[in-house]
Sequence to fold (1158 residues):
Amino acid sequence: MADNQISRFPVPELKELPEDIRDRILAVQEKSGFVPNVFLALAHRPDEFRAFFAYHDALMEKEGGLTKGEREMIVVTTSGLNQCIYCVVAHGAILRIREKNSLLADQLATNYRKADITPRQKVMLDFAVKVSLNAYEISESDIEKMHQHGFSVEDIWDIGAIAAFFSLSNRMANLTSMRPNDEFYLLGRIAKD
Amino acid sequence: MADNQISRFPVPELKELPEDIRDRILAVQEKSGFVPNVFLALAHRPDEFRAFFAYHDALMEKEGGLTKGEREMIVVTTSGLNQCIYCVVAHGAILRIREKNSLLADQLATNYRKADITPRQKVMLDFAVKVSLNAYEISESDIEKMHQHGFSVEDIWDIGAIAAFFSLSNRMANLTSMRPNDEFYLLGRIAKD
Amino acid sequence: MADNQISRFPVPELKELPEDIRDRILAVQEKSGFVPNVFLALAHRPDEFRAFFAYHDALMEKEGGLTKGEREMIVVTTSGLNQCIYCVVAHGAILRIREKNSLLADQLATNYRKADITPRQKVMLDFAVKVSLNAYEISESDIEKMHQHGFSVEDIWDIGAIAAFFSLSNRMANLTSMRPNDEFYLLGRIAKD
Amino acid sequence: MADNQISRFPVPELKELPEDIRDRILAVQEKSGFVPNVFLALAHRPDEFRAFFAYHDALMEKEGGLTKGEREMIVVTTSGLNQCIYCVVAHGAILRIREKNSLLADQLATNYRKADITPRQKVMLDFAVKVSLNAYEISESDIEKMHQHGFSVEDIWDIGAIAAFFSLSNRMANLTSMRPNDEFYLLGRIAKD
Amino acid sequence: MADNQISRFPVPELKELPEDIRDRILAVQEKSGFVPNVFLALAHRPDEFRAFFAYHDALMEKEGGLTKGEREMIVVTTSGLNQCIYCVVAHGAILRIREKNSLLADQLATNYRKADITPRQKVMLDFAVKVSLNAYEISESDIEKMHQHGFSVEDIWDIGAIAAFFSLSNRMANLTSMRPNDEFYLLGRIAKD
Amino acid sequence: MADNQISRFPVPELKELPEDIRDRILAVQEKSGFVPNVFLALAHRPDEFRAFFAYHDALMEKEGGLTKGEREMIVVTTSGLNQCIYCVVAHGAILRIREKNSLLADQLATNYRKADITPRQKVMLDFAVKVSLNAYEISESDIEKMHQHGFSVEDIWDIGAIAAFFSLSNRMANLTSMRPNDEFYLLGRIAKD
Fold:
């Protein structure tokens, strides 16, 4: 792959894109100050782009029993185990911002078992990792253990579904050799970032 | 899990569902003669349902260099390795119908290396399996090998994206303990089915 | 491998075979209506053929605490994990017939943890899978757990020995690229089969 | 398991055994000076005993392209990887005697890739290990590679079948917690043994 | 583990330590501005401490064909695969400083195959990873491949020995649950750091 | 590798070596009657040699709660799993001598779960194996289990540190293709050895 290219597949120009996709990208740019490369890399396929971000938002932006920071913990942990640079770097930045914690993302990306999390979050991540790596072994006893730690039926769906969605996302990022924007690496590492 | 239930999560009644989802389900029922359980199990979360099927259709129903039967080969093969009963049984049925071949699905679900496929399809499935199980190792040399066997850039995206999407799908099915409809097991096994 | 050949090793003509082997094969043909390919593929080595089927019958045909259907469950489950098309397809057919259940074999071949079996059968299959994949870890605590679920010493030997024997059988089938007869795929799928 | 017991399953008295089995055991005792425990442990099931040793002899005692020492190399190497104490210790002794080499068995049991063997024997063991651990991946290209190193079709069957048979044997030994006789450990280690 | 403790084993006070160890620690503190926790955690065992750092310096501080930055690449890559937070975070910081590159450490810790490195460095890391994860498979063909990419005999020893030493180091850090100092996370991320 | 060479890297002549290293080697030779090859192979790098043996002695020669025989059990068990011929053969000999037991080393090298050890030693080896193979999973519950079996904090460090040190040692031996001296194979196998 040539240095610094965003994807090993063709990346469209903004002006070539359908209007709804261009609008979404411009909105993100306005909010974040830059366009995360996942938007450009996936815009190669507009229909898949729309479904991908609709799914993402349905899981990551909705109300629910998990905080937004906890959802990012699931993303960073499972993406580390799936060796996905894009998701670790980009969602690591979001996690630092959401949790106002500059250390946690690097810990979770390497070994969630030793990160600065609560015992309940450890149980949450154990379940997410099992869905990500060995979903075929998920049994009623896993579900019961989650309930014992206070997770509701809807929480369990959320945790499992986020792990499942990023199993897709990690594979797309590794398939396309998606490159994280340089901006993500430093985001949220310095107070008042 | 109680015998024969569709999902370990709540399954909505058709009448409770948003109209667009109910319409989609009724359309499938009319076409297939029954409602595949994946529609009911995922309808528990309407927004995720919409994104899931939009993504599915964008990959499985579009025009492209792969036949629809070949796409189902990818699904059955990777779902077998991910030990997902729902996807093996349901997509095995679709594969039998698409390919008018009553043997291939059972072969691919167990060991695609020894199935009745062409050498080019073997290369396609090798790539799909690598994306499904070890996407972090996908390199330019994998891409080049695909080109040598005549797969275009768009074909490679299709193959990888189908494997990635069913990585999500397999995990949702195992998370929810989704049960395939009994109808699927026999579909496409008898000529003029 | 050329299309539809039975084995990648030489396959003898019936008339070339020693009389006892030919008789056995003709008896199977009379009973089943066709000669399962395993008989022809292994007949390449008459002494090994005799030992193989003597061993098989000693485990699968004898009286004992396990039903014949349960023995086939062990075969189908472990053969699925060992990715052996011949054993999954041929013993899947036998299982459907023995259990008068057209769904169970496809479930067990993909993920026995989610199949329509009793909790006691789940324990039986957990043990069989451990013998098949990690026999070096079998300890007294595994044996004790089996006793707690009502399995006798002889049952435990039966379960472990069937898993061990099909570890051999699965490897011979994959070594020879043994092809299941087309007849097996549909057997037992339709009532009154 | 109680100290020094032969098997975790019942072990019959010689006098209780069917005559043919008792005769075989007495013959081994006369030849070797002791009764290898595998004969006593498996005699718990006379029919399985007969099939097991018939199979063993068909592979290990017959004429063929592999020397008897090479066959034992396959047994020791694959049994080491399968963590089977009985087979490593007992067949290690036989290998030392057959090859008149007091070092080779311990090397092969730990890491065959670095043992004192010829390049052709290394190829033989690579194939045997693939059959033992990943038989589902055996393809025509493996077979062709074997031919390039001078192995005939019958040699390839022998190598694969020995690896397959000891996959059974290793599992039976680990299932029964079969204990090697103390005599085996020193056999063949001293010249003129 | 209590929050923010350095090690799950006792951590000595500086004043209790043998003079040579205290001097080494004070020298590091003067140079770095803080005492990396590995010095305090390992000081629990003075003799092991001395051997550990003597070994470390013999590999990481000596002259040789690898740049100091390349040696840190080996550490960060293999420590990521071994899921060692301490080594990823601490040596990630050193790598950023050595290479004056604020992105590379996070890339290597997640997936070295897609990091901003040269093809020759990719070969170096493939070899280091093989020593770290599958050293028993290292063969002459691996050595020859290294020579073809211009690595000398001494370079190969260096690469392998660094991977081997950090196999020890990663295990000690995970055994002790060694916590990286907060200072490391930001070091080398901002120009003129 | 040429037959019977000690290492695939250059091996220095005794007379070329720094005096302290030569003295150490001569002392070993006087005590053992031969020079174990690890001393010659590692002498290629004097500084690493000094650190290696200082570390080794700090763990293996010190006083402590584990007997010297138990420390060798850890070495032989983990080296078997890491497929390291040198360490299995050389430390197998030392273990036979330390424990005055001619069988134990061969058992532990193949499958420690079925060796002639006490339940407490089994717990010790379970912990050592976890540090050797999956140190990233070591948690407080592992530590607590060790305390329940009577292991002190210092014992736990010893066990883990020996497993960690031989993770280095096994990799150096496999990297260098280090050959055990022929003398080791028979040592300790005959009473009054």
Residues 153-176 of chain A form the longest helix (24 residues). Chain A has a mean pLDDT of 96. Chain A has nine helices and no strands.
